[in-house]
Structure formats: C-alpha cells, structure tokens
Amino acid sequence: WRRDPALAWAVAHVVERRLAAAVDAVSAAAWPHAAPTTSPDLRLFRRGFAELPTVTSNDCDLRTGTTVVAIERSSTGVVVATDAATGPRRLAVDAVIVTVPVSVLQAGSPRFLPALPGATRTALAGFSPGHLETVALRFPSRFWDPGPVGRVSPDPHSFTDWLDLTDVAGAPVIVATLVGAAAAASTRRAETAVAADATRALLAMYP
C-alpha cells in the first residue's frame, strides 16, 4: 500500500492522523478507535483551550500555577502534595482523578505513594505517546475549498490533511497537520521554515 499514494494518504488520514502515530507503531486493536466520529458532542474552542478552565470552574476551587508533585493514598483518603509560588502545600481529599499525559507519568511525575501496581506501571511503560503538530496559515483571502481538504503527495505524513477555519476564525485561516516522525522533525525546525513548507504545499494544490 505504501507504493500507492492515494492508499497511503487514506491510511495516514484514517489511522495515523487520528491516533497521532505512524501505522507501524499502532496496534491492530487500536484501529477501530481511528474511525471518524460525527458525535454532536464535539466542540471547538474558538479562543483556544484556555477557555476550558474558565467555563468549568464555576463550581470548582481552581488553582493555577500549582504543580502536583505527589499523590499519597491511604485507607482514610488521599493527600495531594503541591508545589506553587506560594510554597508547598498538602491537600487532604476524598479521591483524585489523574488526567496528566502518559509521557508525564512515564517521567515519574507526580510520584504515587504507595507506588502504582506493577501491572499498571508495566502498561504505562508500554505506551508510546503519539505526536501531532498543527500549522495554521492566514492569508488576505480564501483561495482554497471550504471544509476539509486532503492532499495526496509522495510523503503521506506531511501536510496531508487541511481544515478550513475561515468561518470559525472570522479570517481566512487554514490548518494543516503533521503526524509521527514528520511532526517530531518539525519541532526541531524554525516555525517560519515549517510555515513556508506548508505554504508551498498549499499553493501546489491551488496554483
């Protein structure tokens, strides 16, 4: 399938972009999770994810600038040890929901006392976090097709998927994605160079 550019794009679009990993690194068990969704619950944060704490903090004690360094469990509850600009604190709570990225857990943060079960640690060690980067381009006017746009190219991992955000952003903006090794490589380059590559790819589709 790698020799067929159209099929390679389909694999990159359906599997790699949705799972943010090269198909060679994806378990066959994960393929059903790559299926597109049309859930009406999907939302787009027009002003970025900074909105999320704001809209969800009405009934919460939200503490920014606070790093959780340890979670201590006992028969009486949980103690969360934090480190902030105001100094370390210990918060006693009934339960904790941990939602940090897998890569952070793999780095040993926060510490769990007692340690997580061996099976859980083994499972975490076996994960390879995906890598996805987005490149947003803004132009004086829109010259591309509205909606999602696919690009078939010799490199199926580079700028294969584009999403028109003109109506959402209120300006002529289009976003491209990079996944896997191409995404990792882009982080080692200057943003202007990556944007220039994306612009050339877009202009090749719309000369």
Task: Tell me about this structure.
- The chain is α+β, with helices and mostly antiparallel strands and 207 residues long.
- 29% of the residues lie in helices and 25% in strands.
- The protein is built from seven helices and eight strands; from the N terminus they run H-H-E-E-E-H-E-H-E-E-E-H-E-H-H.
- The strands form two sheets. Strands 3-2-1-4 form a four-stranded mixed beta sheet, with no helix packed on it.
- A hairpin with a 2-residue loop joins strand 2 (77-84) and strand 3 (87-93).
- The mean pLDDT is 83.
How do the helices and strands line up, and which of them pair or pack?
Layout: H1 5-19, H2 51-56, E1 66-74, E2 77-84, E3 87-93, H3 102-106, E4 111-113, H4 118-125, E5 132-138, E6 148-150, E7 158-164, H5 166-169, E8 173-179, H6 180-186, H7 191-205
Parallel strand pairs: 1-4
Antiparallel strand pairs: 1-2, 2-3, 5-8, 6-7, 7-8
